[in-house]
Amino acid sequence: MKLTDAWLRNPKAQQYFIRTWLSVAEKWTNRFFKDEFDIKISTNNGVETQNKVIKSSYLKLTSDKSLNSTIETIIDQFLPESLKKYNLKNLKLTGEYKKMSDVIPKFLHRRPEPFVKHIYNRLSTAQNIYSENKIKKLELEHTFHVKSEDGTCVYTINFQIPNCTCIDYIKFHWPCKHLCAIFLYVPGYSFDDLPVHIFGK
């Protein structure tokens, strides 16, 4: 890019790009996301689902099937009700809606329930079966080896990405018990120390 005529002819554009985009390259360039969950959307299932909802729950209540009537139904009924449902789901995740149990770590407060259950279960497992001697910090920065529960396998964790080579992380792309063991036993590597763009931090 820096060898192109467009780049060489525009010093102001260079300064803008360097200041605004290159300074936060880890948030948007593929280089930093090569091990992230990456999937191409190749179906229209979401659109078809919404189409089914509109037909079965809204349009069947009116005899006027014209385009104008359909648009009015979507604008006046479907969209406002969808927004209410969306807002309610978000409200349920706030501390004002429901007090989180004191046994749940603070970093899991105000997060989706499936995520909380996933992490809490693995944190509990890690606390019961792991200790510092099953974790080895490698020479490569932010990288660890964590032994399996029975000691027959070793899993590699890159905390900065983050990822783990275990099946659980590959399947869910959420912290596994090995990553949770690092949260618990390695100073400076808690959940709050993960990169800011991870898990909605």
TrEMBL record:
Signal peptide start and end residues: none
Alphabetized InterPro entries for the sequence: Znf_SWIM
UniProt KW keywords: Metal-binding, Zinc, Zinc-finger
Domain of life of the source: Eukaryota
Single Gene Ontology MF annotation: zinc ion binding
One Pfam family this sequence matches: SWIM
Domain named SWIM-type: residues: 155-187
Transmembrane spans: none
PANTHER family: PHD-TYPE DOMAIN-CONTAINING PROTEIN (PTHR47456), PTHR47456:SF5
The name this protein goes by in its record: SWIM-type domain-containing protein
Organism: Schizaphis graminum
Lineage: Eukaryota, Metazoa, Ecdysozoa, Arthropoda, Hexapoda
